[in-house]
Amino acid sequence: MSDRLFIFDTTLRDGEQVPGCQLNTVEKIQVAKQLEALGVDVIEAGFPISSPGDFNSVREISKAVTWPTICALTRAVEKDIDVAVDSLKYAKRKRIHTGIGTSDLHIKYKFNSNREEIIERAVAAVKYARRFVDDVEFYAEDAGRTDNEYLARVVEAVIKAGATVVNIPDTTGYCLPYEYGEKIKYLCDHVDGVENAILSTHCHNDLGMATANTLSGVLNGARQVEVTINGIGERAGNTSLEEIAMILKCHKGIGIDTNINTTKICPTSRMVSSLMNMPVQPNKAIVGRNAFAHSSGIHQDGVLKNVETYEIMNPKDVGLDDNAIVLTARSGRAALKYRMGVLGINISDEAKIDKIYQEFLKLADQKKEVTDDDILVLAGADRADTRAVSLDYLQVTTGKGFKSVASIGLDISGQKFEEAATGNGPVDAAVKALKKVIQKKMILKEYTVQAITKGSDDLGKVHVQVEYDGNLYYGFGANTDIVTASVEAYIDCINKFRIK
Ligand code: KIV
Ligand code: ZN
What we know:
Layout: E1 3-4, E2 6-9, H1 25-38, E3 42-46, H2 52-64, E4 69-73, H3 78-87, E5 94-101, H4 104-110, H5 115-130, E6 136-141, H6 148-161, E7 165-170, H7 177-190, E8 198-203, H8 210-219, E9 224-227, H9 241-250, E10 256-257, H10 265-275, H11 297-305, H12 333-342, H13 350-366, H14 372-381, E11 389-397, E12 404-412, E13 415-423, H15 426-438, E14 442-451, E15 460-468, E16 471-479, H16 482-494
Parallel strand pairs: 1-10, 2-3, 2-9, 3-4, 4-5, 5-6, 6-7, 7-8, 8-9
Antiparallel strand pairs: 11-12, 12-13, 14-15, 15-16
Helix pairs in contact: 1-2, 1-10, 2-3, 5-6, 6-7, 7-8, 10-14, 15-16
3-methyl-2-oxobutanoic acid is lined by residues 14, 139, 141, 167, 169, 171, 202, 204.
């Protein structure tokens, strides 16, 4: 019989820490429900003491989700634990994830403390959390760089104190796969009472080894993995859920199963990418748009003769649907609603669906086929309804041999403004015209353009980073016209400015 591996998803906590990826509570609930449908065992829903928004999200996700355990992160601090307990009030199954840094670097520089005192604080936090919940996970931050002997003492102490799961994070993504595996094995072999808790992996991808390290941890005894959709997370990200799930599915010989319904992987990946405005690299394993695209003649020939010549997985197993209905200008509202449902967007408000459908028809007039990515963008644009600044119109004249000229119309809280400007290219002219209306000292720090799929009629996505009043803001825009998308991304930032 296969062993069971628990999947702990931290897309909404570690994943959401990525600058520019912040979601509002409604969006987080949408992701949490999709994670539930995907079959994850634990959803880390946030770090409740960090902000009222995080607290509220943990609380609302607790109400919205039934099967997975809802987990809240804390430091090894009583106040953090109190707030986490409160945020988990409505969870059907709840877990507190508390912890402290255990590497000598963390002990000395973060805590100005010593090894014995850190064990005392760890034990006290676990005991305190156990007063409120039965399921307490302890994380030994920077365990990857903590020496194994001391780490074993910490793990033994927290299990005795009542920890049900012990997380061994490679916080900085430093470990080599064999080292990380040996660490887990060392703990399995040297910790008294280790059978009373589950050991968990939590690997970061700074050196591109997160998945290899996680797998090595599992092969050496870990029975929970902490992962994110598309591998998003701090810096280079976390281990990606889809990679671990498909490795175990493809390599049945390992003898370890998860509860993941792999056919939900691609829809979940698209939803997270779209809501977080975080593009997936085209060659990303499992969910990148080229992951199943055979381009060389030799490969295409082989696949046509026998698909197994170059495919180790069936695209349908990860939810890539060859027979997806192609939506065009002739598609009805019902077809759009159905497709949104498949993509995990379940909107019950009929007026909202009407609005998205009208936008869909406009886009379908500009493009031959409306793709899933387009639909996610259209549904996402609907979330921007309440913003103060919106684009009424934009007209740009551009071409070789003369300066571009842009005129712009903005609606700012119901008032209309118009301006015109020239620039070194259409985007420059349009942004200059926008700045004439807004009149704030904004500096464009980063500008990225991404075409989604194929074809010159495709939607272009623009990501910008703008500095205003000492703060950085991230904005996103999508349009078949790249200049309009650029202006919309800029406006997205402006709508986020904190005005003092
Ligand atoms: O990477 C890390 O160490 C973490 C902990 C807070 C679990 O994210
Ligand atoms: Zn982490």
